[in-house]
Amino acid sequence: MADAASDHSFKRNLLATLPNLRAFAVSLSGRHDKADDLVQDTILKAWAKQESFEPGTNMKAWLFTILRNEFYSQMRKRGREVQDSDGVFTENLSVHPSQYGALDMQDFRKALDKLPADQREAIILVGASGFAYEEAAEICGCAVGTIKSRVSRARSQLQALLDVTGQGDYGPDAHSAPSTLRSFAS
Amino acid sequence: MTIKPHSDGSRKNQIREEHETISRKLSAFYDSIKEEAIPDRFLDLLEKLDAADHAHQVSAALKGDGNG
Fold this sequence. Notes:
The structure holds two protein chains of two kinds.
Chain A: H1 2-29, H2 32-48, H3 59-77, H4 97-100, H5 103-114, H6 117-127, H7 133-140, H8 144-162, H9 179-185
Chain B: H1 11-34, H2 40-63
C-alpha cells in the first residue's frame, strides 16, 4: 500500500532528524528537560499534520519550523520575555558538564546563552544545524539579509565574550573590554 | 591585550581564524548534544503513533471507508 510506505518513510525521516532537532531545542531553551518536552510536542504536532507535508520537500526545515514556532508560542504563553539578552534561563541551566567535556564547552554554552534569542537561533541554524541562509530565513520567517546580519552580530558577540580576539584592534569602545578594567586603570 | 602574530601578519587571516575558532566551538558544542542517545520516550512515542495510524487504516479499510 502506498500509504503504508510513505508513513514509514515519514517516521524514518523524522527519526533521522531527531538528534539535530534535539540539539536545536537544547540550544533554544538552555535546558535538557525543557528541550525534550519541546521535542515531544514537536513530534506530536508534526505527526498530526503529516498530511500537510509534501514528500520530497525539505522535511528538516519543516520540523525545525514546527519546533521553533512551538518554542516561541510556549514562551509567550508563559509570559517570558525571550528577547532578554541577560539570558532568561542562564541560572536554570541543567546541562551536564561531563557530557560536554572541557570547561571550554561550558564557557561556550554560557556565552551562547548571553546572546539575544534571535542571534542565538540564527547562528545555530546556519553554523550548527546545517541550514543555508535562505533556509534559516524561512524557518525564522524573516529576510535572508536579516539572518546574515544576526549571524554576523552573534559571531562578533561570541568572539568578544570568549575573548577569542585580541582587544587592541577594536578601540576604546570595544564591548569586549570589561568596564572594571577601565575604572581600575584610572 | 595581545594581538597574535600570524605568519603573514595579515588582518584578514586573523579574522578568518577567529571565525573558524567560533565555528569550531559551536560545532563541538552542538555535536556533543547530537551524539547523545535519543531518549526512549521519543522512540516509544513514534512507535505508538505509527501503530495507532496503522490500526486506524486497517479498521477504515475493513469498514470500507474512504475510497473503498
